[in-house]
Write a structure and sequence with these properties.
By secondary structure, this protein is mainly beta. The protein has one helix and eight strands; from the N terminus they run H-E-E-E-E-E-E-E-E.
Length: about 150
């Protein structure tokens, strides 16, 4: 009797698994780049689920990203800085941020992150970055360094 129940459970599990038409695709891309003064990293993660439901294909996507901008030099060089602004652009949209300083900084790293169900960033993108600080501006590109 126990063997019959065990075999029935295995058969039901196999049938349910075979009937599930769900496919999950995970992507993770790390884009890196630098200029003379600044370096940045943009990490994009996506989980796309595709499943057949009532003869139709349904998609759902969850995306998240983290952008990190860091000053390459010695923080002592930036003791008089008042404000930093940055902007980057991907096929999924734009990101930007700023930071103001009331006193000399001890660290010049800016981070932003988001998550949404929107558009996807592609692995072959080139992401332009613009950094502005105290009347200066630097532009550079981020390239995918994922393996």
């Amino acid at each position: 009797m126990k063997n019959l129940i065990f075999i029935s459970i295995i058969v039901i599990t196999v049938l349910l698994t075979a009937c599930s038409n769900e496919e999950v695709v995970n992507d993770r891309y790390t884009f890196i780049g630098e200029g003379a003064y600044w370096e940045a990293e943009y990490v994009f993660e996506s989980e796309e689920t595709q499943k057949d439901k009532n003869g139709r294909t349904a998609y759902s996507t969850i995306n998240s990203d983290v952008f990190t901008l860091s000053y390459k030099g010695d923080v002592e060089e930036m003791q008089t800085i008042e404000k930093i602004e940055y902007n980057y652009k991907t096929s999924a949209g734009e990101g930007s941020g700023s930071r103001e300083f009331d006193e000399p900084p001890t660290d010049i790293t800016l981070r932003s992150n988001s998550s949404d169900n929107g558009a996807k960033v592609y692995e072959d993108e080139i992401i332009p970055v613009i950094v502005k600080w105290d009347g200066l501006e630097e532009t550079f590109e981020l390239l995918n360094k994922s393996e």
